[in-house]
Automatic annotation (TrEMBL):
Organism: Dyadobacter frigoris
InterPro entries: DinB-like, DinB/YfiT-like
A Pfam family the protein falls into: DinB_2
Origin superkingdom: Bacteria
Segments forming domain DinB-like: 26-149
Protein name: DinB family protein
Length: 160
């Protein structure tokens, strides 16, 4: 692969993960959510905004760790990928989760930007996964759950 082609692919992957392209970005999705709405679970729905956001963090962290460390042990599915229901979440914990999402994204972006990272060969410690696939997985998984957060915000009447 030529350097120009690689730079284009990496740039597109990073843009997809950061902005969602045709979807609303993480920052836009969670901007200005009133603290008392973070843990509300609307009738007939299984999760709160908080649980979805924390699930995004846990899953993205797991993907990034899998890519970076052959010794990584993933959490137990599904129990350890979803936080328990809670009546409230502190501003500190909310911000900590957002910061960890951004930190893990940046760790993954560093991996993508490293010219020595092979985007397409299977990872030696996986069962066919490659970095390109994992980048698409982060983008796809995140956009899916951000869409759910937007639906929750609409139901709670706290969206534009």
């Amino acid at each position: 692969m030529q350097a120009n082609e690689r730079k284009t692919i990496v740039s597109e992957l990073i843009t997809l993960i950061e902005t969602g392209n045709a979807h609303v970005s993480l920052d836009e999705t969670i901007n200005d959510i009133p603290a008392d709405f973070r843990t509300v679970i609307p009738e007939n729905l299984p999760y709160s905004i908080w649980q979805l956001l924390e699930h995004i963090r846990i899953t993205q962290w797991d993907i990034v760790e899998f890519c970076l460390s052959p010794d990584h042990k993933s959490p137990k599915w599904p129990d350890e990928y979803w936080p328990e229901k809670t009546d409230s979440i502190s501003d500190e914990k909310w911000e900590e989760t957002l910061e960890q999402i951004k930190k893990d994204r940046n760790r993954f972006f560093d991996l993508l930007n490293n010219d020595k990272t092979d985007l397409y060969s299977p990872l030696p410690h996986g069962d066919g996964q490659n970095i390109f696939r994992e980048a698409l997985l982060i983008a796809d998984h995140t956009s899916y759950h951000l869409g759910e957060i937007l639906v929750l915000r609409r139901l709670l009447k706290c969206w534009k």
